[in-house]
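General statements about sequence and structure are easier to judge against a single worked case. When preparing material for the folding task, we compiled for one chain both its residues and its backbone structure tokens. The amino acid sequence and the backbone structure tokens for this protein are reproduced below:
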Amino acid sequence: MQEVLARSFYERNTLTVAQDLLGKKLVRRLGGLKLTGWIVETEAYRGSDDPASHAYRGMTRRNAVMFRGPGLAYVYIAFGVNYCLNVTTERVGKAGAVLIRAIEPVDGIDSMIENRPNSRGNLVSLTSGPGKLCQAMKITTALNGAGLLHDGELSIHASDWHPREIEATRRIGISKATRRLWRYHVKGNRFVSRA
């Protein structure tokens, strides 16, 4: 397996990181199990210049991880139901995070199906959305603030797979700053979520 992405990868402009995460491998270790998938869809969120961001009005207890520097997991519950995994970007004190919206499952698919029985074994719907992939990979707020820079419970690795074409579209499920084309996905990939 390729090496874990370094801090310098995340310590850049959030929009750049969101695009460059496409094609990288998300790895979740659960005891002796390894669940992995290619990242095929992301969404960028910044700080005080982004009304759709949790960090728009400054630091709170909920969003503090976004200000703690690059390469951390920011996990929260959306709409009181679904966990969402973000990775922090930018330098310490400057908020930024990229939502991992979808992955193409690679390793541990049987375990992912067990973790997400309502997918009914449908591979395409298994991880095609932020709540779905968190359920399939057992990612919860217990991982909020976890470091991603080592091959631990959760990490993101470099890969030899480079998407041929990336498409930028409007973000999904927000009511502010809706015209910004800050959602990025691998064009034509069947695991990309549907609006």
Observations:
- The domain at 7-186 is CATH 3.10.300.10 (3-methyladenine DNA Glycosylase; Chain A).
